[in-house]
Sequence to fold (1014 residues):
Amino acid sequence: MTTLTLRHVAIDTYRENVAYLHRDCKLYRSQGFQALNKIEIQQQDNGRSIIAVLNVVDDIAITAPDELGVSEQAFAQLGGVAGIAVSVAHARAPDSISAVHRKIAGDRLNLEDYRGIARDIAANRYSKIEIAAFLVACSEIGLEREEVLHLTRAMIETGERLDWGEPLVVDKHCIGGIPGNRTTMIIVPIVAAHGMLMPKTSSRAITSPAGTADTMEVLAEVELSPDKLHEIVRSERACLAWGGTARLAPVDDLLIVVERPLLMDSPGQLVASILSKKLAAGANHLVIDIPIGATAKIRSRNSALVLRKLFEYVADSLGINLEVVFSDGRQPVGRGIGPALEARDVMQVLNNDPAAPIDLREKALQLAGRILEFDPDIRGGQGYMIARDILESKRALAKMQAIIKAQGKNPSPPQIGRLRHAVRACESGFVIGINNLQLARIARLAGAPMDQGAGVDLHRKLGEPVQAGETIYTIYAAFPADFEFARESAEQDSGYQIGDHYVDDMP
Amino acid sequence: MTTLTLRHVAIDTYRENVAYLHRDCKLYRSQGFQALNKIEIQQQDNGRSIIAVLNVVDDIAITAPDELGVSEQAFAQLGGVAGIAVSVAHARAPDSISAVHRKIAGDRLNLEDYRGIARDIAANRYSKIEIAAFLVACSEIGLEREEVLHLTRAMIETGERLDWGEPLVVDKHCIGGIPGNRTTMIIVPIVAAHGMLMPKTSSRAITSPAGTADTMEVLAEVELSPDKLHEIVRSERACLAWGGTARLAPVDDLLIVVERPLLMDSPGQLVASILSKKLAAGANHLVIDIPIGATAKIRSRNSALVLRKLFEYVADSLGINLEVVFSDGRQPVGRGIGPALEARDVMQVLNNDPAAPIDLREKALQLAGRILEFDPDIRGGQGYMIARDILESKRALAKMQAIIKAQGKNPSPPQIGRLRHAVRACESGFVIGINNLQLARIARLAGAPMDQGAGVDLHRKLGEPVQAGETIYTIYAAFPADFEFARESAEQDSGYQIGDHYVDDMP
Fold:
């Protein structure tokens, strides 16, 4: 078999491996390859192989006819050594694709089917197109609840699984969609100060203005090696780290790459995604926060109930203790939206600062209370008071400082963006609506989360009175272009509704 | 707004535009771009814009920080001039994606919805992921027949439409899947010799060992400019050209790029794809060939009937005269599989060569007869005899020679592959089964259609007696690697079934 010489092409193609073959390469002609074909690249010395999408090159400065160029990620997966011999062949369609076709045709799949799909996706055998087909098929016909259970199981099995060796390992998760909702950074120090084990790994923002990992990064290092992470958890009973370094439920990461641009978030996928990650991370007691609101992911109490029952069914079947909490999703939580602004809110709450946003503090205490009640020694209903006591005695603050120190304090915390624009009320009245989606959009346009200091700071919340001309929120940015985009968007739609009457209709 | 300098990156990314941005480019940081994001590139001077997928570059030899590199196709779409100023922004999701989400949720879409989807796809605003979501949604819930009609209409409207200015413009189409089925190259000269207008444009093979355009290319030039094509049709009443140069129903071409790797071919998509192409090409009388067989696309008479009714409904609504013919899809048609071998079969039939494959000749005469009967002057049932008369009198051959001359005769027709391998029967008996899919696979592995002389030549057909050790077919190839792949595949599965009893059970 003809071999080619491996070459590193310094192009970052994120989660899609790309191979570059020169048009004059004899394999290109003889094998009938076409650009966008999926090919299998095999290392000659150890037989290891990866799947990549083919691009055809007409410039020997990129790839010569006797070479196979590969993008940065593919190069790393092949061991990162240029000049080794590789062979190339058409990639076969993954075996499990027949199950996807059965799902498209309306069949119900079994555990073995989902295992096959998860294994092939984890091995990068699915193209983005094939992943999209799987997701749409699951979303459209819908998954029966047994199928959600099968999918969750299969996703856990295809990755690493942490074992903390303790009967009570707690975690919390919010299904997302509410800007500023940074309760995790308050809950973790409270719960750990009580002595419970809460090894929290979080994601970075994908479509939101800040994830917990982005916000914690304002204060401390979050990219920790597995050894370092274990050491911190052993000494502090907790951590607040980025979850991307561990290979936990890797299928989920690959599905997300396709789900996000499609704006797909079916209940079955949501439950499988969250529970597979949490179980793989070793949690056995879990509180799920489902915010309900007109511009939240879940818009009615009815949909929230359906989702709760699905969470409960899968969690019970997998032997994890799970409590679902419904919360107020009608507006952002806290004041800041964007990493530095949200970190400020969190630290104000932990410091018992009178300026701290009350809604963020209250929500964090409620959720922390529910987690504390997983402790058999705590009487039902006492969790909230114990959480408040830990917060007010500044034991939570001390724990947060210890975690920051252990992870490595950020030596140069970011400044809040130097470009500032006040968005003012056009009329007087009460704030009767705040659009989560529009506020998140403005904060992102302003530069969050890439610019840690960028974002939006809210001066008025739902139900508060406002006079025409008063500032309802401030936009912060670092770069003029971003600043303009954010201002323009706020001018078109401030995201605020002002009216004469406000009725508190918490869903 | 910040601008970048356009640069040509000599990478062929086929139907997916790719843009290359250096990691140190200030826009990369300030805009929060990520690899695989969809971006909109706008030419500063004329405002023209395209959508592309972003790759991030770490090598200034590919793209410098003040440049925007684009792949070959994107460069051509932007006018093909390096050094011009372009601006870059996040691409918004196409407006029509909300209709796709409604389809995923099970809604029925209306004509305006399909128009929006077709317009956005034609403008390259859909990523492959979004196209996959649309296709799966259409395939799974299925399209109601009104929706197939809407989709067909929308696909026609988004491209050019040819008008030949005559009331009787005929065409034929086979839904595909049967190797060697090259009837078109016999039908066109027969019908044109009778004086009917048949401006035939065909596709190249995508997953099969030869398309009509590939086979005709063995004999003559097939990539004709629109002017040249019209001139030939005016003088000869017909042509046998590649359809890729005209922008007819371009949405179909973009859907196919995603359909093929997914192996999706739902009836609704199939009908919309075929009829939109034919109507855009100006046909108003059409014969559709649906082969039925265990290894054909359509496996039962019942599925064939469902498909026929869908064809009839859409064609009637669009005012095109359409006849559906069911044919024998149990085995390849003719002997040769691969461009040069199939061209040989065709010319044998046109030459009335006694060695000509009878099944190819008979099938072509049947279909040509049906087309001739669109002529109001031909009595029902007489078409076949008239077609046979045109063939036997060599008027069809003369017409074919005139078409070849007009399009430009191939000055160096390909040789049949120099590497040859005889596949022999392991036992004696009758040929009781031939697998279309396996024979097509072997011919493709041997190098067809890229190597025009490669392919498979059948020595035995269904129902024929065979002795153990006799050659059942020959594999032809030009390159040793291809030759080995094809031989290996034939050894694993020859695609032939031999048994003691043969019953002719034509479906």
